[in-house]
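TL;DR need structure tokens for one chain.
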Amino acid sequence: MLKVTGSAMPGALRFLPVVVFADAGEAEKEVPAPLNRDDLSLYATPPQTSRYAEPEAGQLEESVATIRKLVEPYAAWCQDTYGRIKPRVQRVVRFGSDTYAYLKDPPKDFYPRAGVIGFTGVLGLFLARGSRVKRLLYPAGLMTLSASLYYPEKAANVAKSTGDSVYDWAVQSYAAVEKMLSPQSKAEEAENKP
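>> reply
TL;DR here they are.
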């Protein structure tokens, strides 16, 4: 028998005598089997018995899903339109910033030349009283004429580049008018022959 006194206990408990009984005889008789790490519950993973179950959709989730399905074509249309408009807007912004930079530090005699060109446009409007075609052609023609007087190199370049396209357009217009008028003239000839 083993007796432990209170000197091993801290605080006020060390003044109380405590008796511990231990039986050393049985430990010698039984030899415990060695324990594996997998047998201890601390190291073993428990079998997975739980499964994830998708929660049922509530009324709010169903309403949001319905709205998303209804709005989806409009959102796709908006994204497509934005994708087409964005480059154009960027071009306009770039043109505006370039124009601002040009007007901030203009070349010599720019403003007097711009004034004369603008005045010829107003003069064209004044001279074109009466007809809508004149109101369109006179100001544009006079402004083009005055601009070509001030900037002859640029006017020559524009004339060269657009001359061929204007000629092609004129030929196509002539062919279209001829095509429109020729069936009528053939029908008139057929009526007069009998």
